[in-house]
Amino acid sequence: MISLLIGLAAGFFGGLVGLGGGVIMIPLMVSILKMGQHKAHGTSLVALVFTGISGAVTYALNGSVDILASVLLASTAIFTARAGAHLANALPEWKLKRSFGGFLILVSLLLLLKPYLPHASRHVTGWLEILILLLTGIFTGFLSGMMGVGGGTIMVPSMVLLTGFTQYTAQGCSLLAMVPVGIVGAYTHWRLGNVSTSILPGLVPGILIGTYLGGSLAHILSEGVLRIIFSAVLIWTGIRYLRTPKPQTGEVNYS
């Protein structure tokens, strides 16, 4: 039941703002389910695949998906996602928590800046647009594999700020592109033993339902107040992770 509620919460916020939901899912799995950081990251990537599928379908039904842009993003991201997953497994857990804390704070700042991004540039077309999408995919794939998130926090702002996509189309493309990226990262983490399969039967249905509800709501409601609340939660959680103490010399952390 708890895993179902976590899936609902992560899916709803993920669908609403075009993210994979890992920024909500991972802290909840660590704090409530007492899951280790590495396993939470790996499990999050498995759930991320279903977030992307449900979210992409919901946004496509509202005409907010550019399939070609999604393919370009995913084509480079799938290669760097595996490298990110291996780096995450090699890092000590306290370093991973601090890195994730910094990542959450970065996410919150990007979300707060969203209202200003559409006015930053005109729509870019041609080879420049293709190059921007490919480079964005490289970075977000690595981020997805390392942090257990979909990379939408980089994809969406990059598409809106650098190529001039509308907010809704950028979010729809991000959700679709994260499906193959999530599959690669999830498979790598599964081989490394970083996936908790026992919670997936509850987590996945929650993700599917929550993402559909969040994606539908995104097309009829303003994101302003929810974005501020969500950003505040991310900042608070990020600060907690940044304050993770370094283990004493000789102390080994197996969680």
From TrEMBL:
The chain crosses the membrane at residues 6-30, 42-61, 67-88, 100-118, 130-156, 168-187, 199-218, 225-242. It comes from the Bacteria. One of its GO terms (cellular component) is plasma membrane. It is a multi-pass membrane protein. The keyword Cell cycle does not apply. Keywords: Cell membrane, Membrane, Transmembrane, Transmembrane helix. This is Probable membrane transporter protein. It comes from Desulfofundulus kuznetsovii (strain DSM 6115 / VKM B-1805 / 17).
